[in-house]
Amino acid sequence: MDNFGTDIFSERETLFVEVILPLSLAKNYTYRVPFDLNDQIEIGKRVVVQFGKHKIYTALIKAISKQPPLVYEAKYIIDVIDAEPVITATQLKFWGWMTGYYMCNEGDVMSAALPASLKLASETILVLRDDFSDEIALSEKEEVIITALKKQQKLTVNDVSKLLGQKTIYPIINGLLDKELVLVAEEVVQKYKPLLKSFIVLNDFYNDQDNLKQLFAVLERAPKQLDALLAYLKLQKSNLPIAKETLLEESNCGAGALKALTDKDVFMVMKRPVSRLAFNDDEFHSSFQLNAGQETALNQINKAFEEKDVVLLHGVTASGKTQVYIKLIEKIIQNTDGQVLFLLPEIALTTQIVDRIKRYFGNAIGVYHSKFNNSERVEIWNKVRTGAFKVILGARSAVFLPFQHLKLIVVDEEHEPSYKQYDPAPRYQARDASIYLAYLHQAKVILGSATPSLESYYNALQGKYGLVEMRERFGGVQLPNQQVVSISEETKNKSMVSYFSSVLIKDIDLALSRKEQVVLFQNRRGYATILICATCGYTPKCVNCDVSLTYHKSSGKLHCHYCGYHQSSVNICPACGSVHVEQKGFGTERIEEELKLLYPDVNIARLDMDSTRTKNGLQQILNDFQDKKTDILIGTQMVAKGLDFDNLNLIGVINADTLLGYPDFRAYERSFQLLAQVAGRAGRRADQGNVCIQTYDADNRIIKQVVENDYVGMYNDEIAERERFLYPPFSRMIFLYIKHKDSHVLDHAALTLANILKAKFGKRVLGPEQPLVSRVRNLYIKQIIIKADRHTAIQKVKDALRDTLTEFNATKEFKGIFTQIDVDPY
């Protein structure tokens, strides 16, 4: 455990604690400590505090002092929750850095960092008054609540809602309060509860052999009970706790026999906490050998680590980077008591790679991502804090875990946009944050990618990072053969079959005849991108956002992918009454349907956000593909992210143009990365894979560079353009979003703020402009960009910007305006 260096305070000293509340507050609050809690307070512990009139929150102690706040009278803390700190001193430093760098509040970081079950919430509790009277007339619903309170003593507001089967219950509660029949109390509820499991223990009396013999004699008349006893004695030889389920399975005696033995005090049932996390007991082993290329890369990385804290591993797809990572991790956990953080951009990656790495590290490995429930997250948190987990595989939020002895961070597929958090704050980049986290722990970082981000590759070429390259695929397998097919030419020649060119159909037929698997990539989910009236041009739009609705055939509804709004599909135009409503554009659902018409006897599956909403939905889809139960997998960019299948030999890109046309300075870089990563999934074992890229723009520079696997050429073209127009890495960017429900008020506010900023920062300020989507969730949006060159003191810019926004938001005229800051918005 980190030593926070807390003084031992006298029991009668008046102490104050600065706490971080899980709220987006510009300043932390200070509370007074009751004398009887003086010896319990410590930095990093959670305390219960009242904030506002009624609300009770869990806060974290950040600092302890004897100085009261100057401008308000400090309230007392209510209680101390923890026996020991739940976060470390290093974590607090990390939170402080994130607050300053990404221009958010410490409460934002706390909300993002702590599992929900460690952030205790206040729940409104209803209790009957002591002087409750039965003589007051009640409505039917009030009667239901009072009857329930007489039985249960207390009910939460959520309980009342479920009891009455309705959401609008506040008027009813107010009625009971007005009649002075109930009281409202605030109670902190501990959300995390250990998972308890029943274990069977033999009464100590029967450890004596004579007593045990007498028991056997008694149980001869009860054969099922005797079976249970014999099974227990057999299982007892393994010296492991005997779970109730295990004993029932082993003895086949039935629950009744077990209950009879418990009633006779032969067996005792003990409840013990067990882990919610699924483990196997594979032993640690590492039987593989690195090839010459991997061995060279490993040696170069270790040598680079002597001078640099960060090394970029640029290895072509299927070059065996994961095995190099494993050897680096193995060295850490065998030679030290160190911990390793292995960051992955997507849960899609996590689910497959964890199985591979588990073979080498057994139960020393933990996995942390958003698909775990709150209680599972708390367990992982505690196992990292105690050092039980040596290796953590996780998505971006894993940077917040309470590492004790972090020695190495691996950021796989470091170029992935998924490492960036967009909403809510903190809007951090996990790759960049992990580099600072490693600095705090004096650890090393390895960034791995076949298509590194331009910033990382630039930093490596400038000597800021070490650079190690792996140019050949593992086992000498050739890079895939890539073909570009012009959709325009195929359409002109009438050889397109639905959305599939004759070339792609021929390739699919060949792959299926060889019993090989196929992946088709389309970067749009849903069925049809938009519906449009052929007569008047009407398009159904979201009522909350300025976007057209996407048609999903599986639900039969039109969906907004921004706010979740959905409505029934339209067959008759509501504007002109025409029945000629056409579907334009296509997503993965449409591809799946068309493919099933062409190949009715082939097993086809879809991998996108819609098909993987359940906890194990994604894993099931991947397992079926791995087990060859699926012949063709259609997916969005989820299929590009590091998946490795031995029988996959054909990749088809349905339409590459949806990527290239995106209005963003990173569009070409991202297109190259995504297309190269998708192509890299093919032929990763023995045979050379095939890739078919369909596009309207066959002569596009990026398409050609993907086919030639020319990352350096793409880098040189893009970096020259970035330098010319002063984009990262030659500048630092801060995006400022201004939001309001009234577009006219917003226009005035955005222009006023832009003029104030231009007076301070001059030409560095661009805008205000409308972003691509100008209204989301009924809020209109304007965007201001601050673009500072590399020689600008960026922290001074941030400090001045924060002061400006504080003054702007405090102005009466702009009270209802929302402002959002996004530092490094890419």
- Estimate nothing, just give the exact number of structural domains: 7
Q: Tell me how many strands there are.
A: 34
The third-level CATH topology of the largest domain is: Rossmann fold
Radius of gyration: 31 Å
Give the low-pLDDT segments: 279-286
How many helices? The count is 25
Q: Could you estimate the helical fraction of the residues in percent?
A: 25-40%
Please give a structural write-up.
- The structure is a single chain.
- By secondary structure, the chain is α/β, with parallel strands linked by helices.
- The chain has seven domains: 15-120, GIY-YIG endonuclease; 123-189, Arc Repressor Mutant, subunit A; 204-265, no CATH class; 292-474, P-loop containing nucleotide triphosphate hydrolases (Rossmann fold), CATH 3.40.50.300; 481-525 and 587-720, P-loop containing nucleotide triphosphate hydrolases (Rossmann fold), CATH 3.40.50; 528-585, no CATH class; 731-823, Ribosomal protein S10 (Alpha-Beta Plaits), CATH 3.30.70.
- 34% of the residues lie in helices and 22% in strands.
- The chain contains 25 helices and 34 strands.
- The strands form eight sheets. A seven-stranded parallel beta sheet has the order 14-15-13-16-17-12-18, sandwiched between helices. The chain has a six-stranded parallel beta sheet with strand order 19-29-28-20-27-26, with helices on both faces.
- Helix 21 (667-679) packs parallel to helix 22 (701-707) and helix 24 (743-761) packs antiparallel against helix 25 (794-810).
- The longest helix has 19 residues, at 743-761.
- The protein is globular.
- The two termini are 36 Å apart.
- Residues 279-286 have low confidence and may be disordered.
